[in-house]
Structures
1.
Amino acid sequence: MKFQCDSAARTPIYRQLIEQVREAVARGRVQEGERLPSVRQLSKQLVVNPNTIARAYTELEREGLVHTRPGLGVFIASLQPELSNQARERRLAALIDRFLTEAVHLGFAAEQVTAMLAKRMEQFQFAEK
């Protein structure tokens, strides 16, 4: 996995890294069990403080996206939703509402939003029914 960060962005670097891992998992670019670069390697590569990388990895572990094997590194975890179906649906509904609100304010028609969403969905790996 190739990481990048933008030190001029408003988003903190550790959040940028978290979002890159989340997106890579969602798009299937990284698989369960795949090893991420070590804190030291990634901090050298991105020229950032190792604590920034450690913070990102800690947050990802808290979210259940990665797990640490002492002495071996940080690995992509298997996706196992910890929330009930009802809680997951509520959370997704809130995200969809924010997305649709933005689409309305940007002046898109419902058909345009549906078409764009269908096209973008093709790039992601969804769970089987």
2.
Amino acid sequence: MAYRPLSRDQTWLLPPTLEELIPVDHPVRFVAAYVDALSRADWQQLGVGPDGELRGAPAYHPRALLGVWLYGFMTGVRSARKLEGACRDQLPYLWLTGWQRPDHNTLWRFYQAHRAGMRRLLTGTVQTAVQLGLVDLAVQAVDGTKLAGNAARERTYDAAGLERLLARTETAITELEAQNTTSDDGAPPRLPPALHTKQTLAERVRTARAALQAEAAGPRVNLTDGDAVLLKTRHGFVAGYNGQAMVAPLVPAVAGTTGLLITAAEVTTEANDSQQLRPLMAAAAANLGQVAAVTLADGSYATAANVAACAAAAEGLVTPAGPPLDQRPPYHKERFAYDAATDTYTCPQGQELTWRGPTERAGELPVRVYRAATAVCRACPAYGACVKGRSGRVLERGPHDDVWRAHQARMAEPAARAQYRQRKQLVEPVFGLLKEHQGARRLLLRGWAAVQAEWSLLATAFNLRTLARVWQRGRAAGLDGAAA
């Protein structure tokens, strides 16, 4: 078989245009169309003056810089230096910038100045999809994922660890100062780098210790990122954040394809997900313009307080509610019958538990305590199986017990179980795509506010990937000119 001719000295009689370099259905064209459609009000909300400054040298157009960042987040290129290289070497970025090559300092300054305003872009992507009828408002799913921060786990210390580190650092500073003063050389013009580093570390330790003493940073603090917390993952503990997302599916008949859309995204430093359900539902409703009919959530969100709040707001919630009654232990609390008229419980052996008073726990609503007589429980044939201690059986009744029991009954129905089985296929693939295709396994910024903006832009880029695929199918008429 003959070889094709190879020559790197070829020239063009008529040079190609920018339009010829990129296919007509390339996703970068959708990004450009989306950015170009931003209104003056949108740019002002981003903190960008759409007309530029009258004085000074011409600057790169914000449409080019924002497009580079959005397309970078879509393709997993999230650092300013890598974006600089992409703007120099890759045709989609060269097309996006009009063959201009902004350096990493320019890109970083734009991102740093406007990343907080970029959080509004997530709302824009959701509203665009809603206006085009792409979002299935019948169901949504919420979940969280642990994100490794830009900080080492080993740099996390408790109060005792900070004291030991500060003692070692101060000892090292003393030794360095002694070496500096006993030297035969003349006085250095500036502080030795080694001493400067130790003093900086000591100052960080003192600041962190003061924060712990003031109980402002929790039981531990990370010296690299003071907002990052230790979170347990399947691969061990990491210093990072808990990323939350609400996800809704597309309407295949309208979109011409299946797909998922992130309707709300938040970052928290709490390992427990239960407190994030209602804020995520409220944020999703605000972005969508209405409340989804049903929200699917896993067991980490299944608390009586969340169920009661959703019931009070008439919002559908489907979560695991534990095994059915016939699969619970014989003396589980659910097997005790409550009589509202007498305000008593009756155990499976027919004995009565009476109200003994309220009790309170930090951060929780008061609960009512019910107890059986000690002598009755000791004489009961179930003593030992029902009661573990020496006193009578004790039950606690919370303010949402009735709502929780009703929720358990609903979740035991086949229709609710079938609904819940949709959860995995809705929200879990989103986290996989964010981490594998958009490089979100590790965050690049430090501090909660910066991480929140980074997570929001990742969600925005995910939505743009979804909408670009719909646009490629050509089923959403006018999508490339839709305003954000």
